[in-house]
Design a protein that fits this description.
The chain is of the alpha/beta class and 205 residues long. The protein folds into two domains: 2-44 and 97-204, Ribosomal protein L4/L1 (Ribosomal Protein L4, Chain: A, 3-Layer(aba) Sandwich), CATH 3.40.1370; 46-95, no CATH class. It is 34% helix and 15% strand. It is built from seven helices and six strands. It has helices spanning 20-23, 29-43, 102-119, 135-144, 159-165, 181-185, 194-204, and strands at 2-6, 12-17, 122-125, 150-154, 171-175, 189-193. A six-stranded mixed sheet has the order 2-1-3-6-4-5. It is elongated, with a radius of gyration of 27 Å. The protein starts with a strand and ends with a helix.
């Protein structure tokens, strides 16, 4: 399939041929959901924790004799039943990460790219370069392109462009090597340079 290539000032810069096996698939929500859950699980710290019964610093001496008092049987004061005791079955530190096959991850990325293409939310730029470090000027350029919230992907970012874009709240810059499903889906638009398209197709072909 073909897509229009635009310059940063929204002028026409020709067309580019996109790989149908990457940008022309029927998006599967279940596949996208699997990859997003896998990504977010890896980001979780897993440091939430409460003290277990063995870690509570309370006396382990038996309160009173086992039988004959008419009261319930009790041992250590660290039991969850008592105020100041341990938490019963509370959270402990552990990793939330789980494995996902490489083929599923790659397919999820293809479906995310295809979803943006199908929605008309994919913008292809000839190059992402700025002559000077001017945030206002860059904001105006993206306004002409109809881009407010977007993920911008390039092979290697121009220094002036990246410095101009860092104060724009709606823009996020990601190198082609770091492209992922979660970042694609959380932004309204996906902006790819022709260099990024080439790198993505080499990576996923």
């Amino acid at each position: 399939m073909k897509a229009k290539v635009l310059n940063l000032d929204a002028s026409d810069a020709g067309e580019i041929e996109l790989n149908d096996s990457i940008f022309g698939l029927e998006p599967r929500k279940d596949l996208l959901q699997r990859v997003v859950v896998w990504q977010l699980a890896k980001r979780r710290a897993g440091t939430h924790k409460v003290q277990t019964r063995g870690e509570i610093n309370r006396t382990k001496k038996k309160l009173y004799k086992q039988k004959g008092t008419g009261q319930a049987r009790h041992g250590a004061r660290s039991a969850p039943l008592f105020v100041g005791g341990a938490k019963a079955m509370g959270p402990v530190q552990h990793s939330h990460e789980f494995s996902l096959p490489k083929k599923v991850r790659a397919l999820g990325l293809k479906h995310a790219l295809s979803a943006k293409m199908r929605d008309g939310s994919l913008v292809v730029l000839g190059a992402a370069k700025s002559d000077a470090i001017k945030t206002k000027a860059l904001a105006e350029h993206f306004g002409k392109l109809g881009v407010i919230s977007a993920l911008v992907v390039d092979g290697e970012f121009d220094k002036n462009f990246s410095l101009s874009a860092r104060n724009l709240a709606g823009l996020a810059l990601v190198p082609a090597a770091g492209l992922n499903v979660y970042d694609i889906l959380r932004r309204d638009k996906l902006v790819l340079t022709t260099a990024a398209v080439k790198l993505i197709e080499e990576r996923l072909s």
